[in-house]
Amino acid sequence: MKNNIESIIKYLKGSNDDFIVTSHISPDGDNIGSTLAMYYTLNKLGKNVYHVLDDNPPQNLKFLVENMNILKSEEVNLDSYNIIALDCGDKNRMCISQKLIDNAKKIICIDHHASNDYYGDFNYIDTEASSTCELVYNLLIEYEKKENINIIDEDIATCLYTGLVTDTGNFVYSNTHPSSFEMAKELLSKGAKKDTIIQKVFQSNPYNYYKLLGEALNTLDVVDGKIASITITKEMLKRNVISFNDVDGITPYTRDIEGVEVGILLKEKKENEVKISLRSKNYVDVSKIAKSFNGGGHIRAAGCTIYSSIEDAKKKIVEAVVKAIQGDKNE
Ligand code: 5GP
Ligand code: MN
């Protein structure tokens, strides 16, 4: 079923089943922000709701989950439940067990990824939206209007604001629209803790992060002036005591070089498993490149995993980007 905010509201309202909220692997601000906002909402509406994610939030988002009980799939034993998959463009990327996915009564998908294939029984997908948090915000505003109730409180506003600022790079990226600022204004008026969010998310990097960043910048490699890459090996992470999920914010260094169209971050998760982050500036659709490696994302920000050595992964992704630059330039 295609976009239908009305039918999602009707279903949420009418269902007496339990709900699981979940998102994608390698959680980011939009993932944690949208799932928590939905969790708090369903709680308020008197539903039984569980937040399930088989991965750990990065250090800079821990402040949002301090009082939360985030469950792993094996801790959940439910009979009749629905899944709300947020910010997850691909069913295979949902960060819960296959068993939980297979036995769900209905899957409600709320997402803004260009690569989303409408895998839910209900789908509210808007690839133009700044963030999934913006879609959750729209849904909640609609719900409030329809039922004449107040849902968005200080906690929900804080969660939604977090996803909005992280996915728009603090209102910088091309997915920042007038509606993003309107949403920000409304959330601030509802008590979103802006200063806490900015400090915790963007201004709390551990010292070791900068040691790692220094090493990472030393690997910077520019091809034809248009493609820049940075490589982070598992040894570099180990040496600087930084965990895999805590290396956010390094990819933009590649894209932000003058003349560079596509920036690539290669991050080695384990032997023969390399996480690739792609960013583009003007004309290359990086979600297409990511898709060709079974990944996905947005036009200007996407990712995938390549299962080979880091050297080989770099060769493959650079080759694909060179081709895409030729293709997209000629379109
Ligand atoms: P990042 O580079 O920050 O990890 O991800 C950039 C964007 O691409 C995010 O919206 C993220 O959800 C999406 N993305 C990253 N990796 C993958 C992947 O392996 N598969 C899919 N479908 N999307 C991804
Ligand atoms: Mn997102």
UniProtKB/TrEMBL annotation:
Residue ranges of every copy of the DHHA1 domain listed in the record: 251-325
Entry annotated with the keyword Transport: no
GO molecular function: alanine-tRNA ligase activity; nucleic acid binding
Domain of life: Bacteria
Signal peptide from the UniProt entry: none
Pfam families recorded: DHH (PF01368), DHHA1 (PF02272)
Domain DDH, first and last residues per copy: 19-163
Alphabetical keyword list: Ligase
Keyword Flavoprotein: no
EC number: 6.1.1.7
PANTHER family assigned to the protein according to its UniProt record, in alphabetical order: BIFUNCTIONAL OLIGORIBONUCLEASE AND PAP PHOSPHATASE NRNA
Protein name according to UniProt: DHH/DHHA1 domain-containing protein
Classification of source organism: Bacteria, Bacillati, Bacillota, Clostridia, Peptostreptococcales
